[in-house]
Amino acid sequence: MNCVALDSDLSMLKINKNLYVILGGDGQGANVGVSVGEQSVVLIDAMVEKSTDNLFKAIRSVSSKPVKYVVNTHDHFDHVGGNALFSSRGATIISHDSASYEMPMDIIGFDRKLILSHGEEQMEVFHVASHSPSDAIVYLKTSNVIFVGDVFATGWYPALFHGGISGQNEAIDLALSWADENTKIVPGHGDVSNKSDFLLYKNASILWVDRIMALHKMGVREEAMTKDKKLNDIRMMFKTPATNKDAFDRWFQDLVKNTIQVESKSAM
Ligand SMILES: [Zn+2]
């Protein structure tokens, strides 16, 4: 895959002649899919608001056609920042029915599944319940690429704060049911990955949640859990870059707390 650095801090990966991934990170927001057709462009997610100009320039470097749809993998700020601008220029937003936006925009909502043809690309958008109530995963069948939003982040820990481990497993299993050895899995944040990376993440997540809940049942407090040797060993299974270490140390206890909250709810 060719990765091209752009004028801004963004970089762009060419998947094939009709599909690119603009990599987010460093406060710029989530990864973006750019499907290029003869008449129009379809985006998957739209970074944070302050990245919109750079995002627009990056799209213009591969197509002069208007953005027709922006498919949101969920309604969090780091995925929907460019919605307002693209909407004001004629794009329609596609998102799960439960997504909520501050701005009035043209929106096509869906409940379970939506099918979209764009040029040569066949896209299927499915609702899942893992990271947030409005999660959607987007399968680009022609390109054999699956955008999974924040069901997966390669440089972080499971953020399964809506559906818990069962919701995350269901979402991953659905995506893996389409995947073969050549499928590219695009996480909401981090590197473009493949089926075996996603499977490793799934298994590490199961161990992570099991260990946290086992400690919880033993009455171990959240602060003490962050010092637990087994949990720290499991932590090493996630490929968190060294640059995320400080952030993780700050968030460790919160992640543990959120995991206990969501798992206790789903066990009731
Ligand atoms: Zn995100």
What can you see in these coordinates?
By secondary structure, the protein is of the alpha/beta class. It has a single domain (2-195), classed as 4-Layer Sandwich (Metallo-beta-lactamase, Chain A). The protein has 8 helices and 13 strands. The chain has helices at residues 52-60, 77-80, 83-88, 164-178, 195-217, 222-225, 229-235, 245-267; strands at residues 2-5, 11-16, 19-23, 32-36, 41-44, 67-71, 92-96, 107-110, 113-118, 121-127, 136-140, 145-147, 184-186. It has an 8-stranded mixed β-sheet with strand order 1-2-3-4-5-6-7-8. Strands 9-10-11-12-13 form a 5-stranded mixed β-sheet, covered by helices on one side. The site of zinc ion has 7 residues, from α2.
CATH class: Alpha Beta
Neighbour order of strands in the largest sheet: 1-2-3-4-5-6-7-8
The tally of beta strands, per DSSP, is 13
Helix percentage: 25-40%
What is the name of the CATH architecture? 4-Layer Sandwich
Instruction: Could you tell me the CATH topology label.
Output: Metallo-beta-lactamase, Chain A
Strand portion: 15-25%
Write down the overall geometry.
globular
Ions, cofactors and other ligands present here are:
zinc ion
Cα Rg: 18 Å
Number of domains: 1
List the helices and strands and how they pair.
Elements: E1 2-5, E2 11-16, E3 19-23, E4 32-36, E5 41-44, H1 52-60, E6 67-71, H2 77-80, H3 83-88, E7 92-96, E8 107-110, E9 113-118, E10 121-127, E11 136-140, E12 145-147, H4 164-178, E13 184-186, H5 195-217, H6 222-225, H7 229-235, H8 245-267
Parallel strand pairs: 5-6, 6-7, 7-8, 12-13
Antiparallel strand pairs: 1-2, 2-3, 3-4, 4-5, 9-10, 10-11, 11-12
Bound molecules: zinc ion.
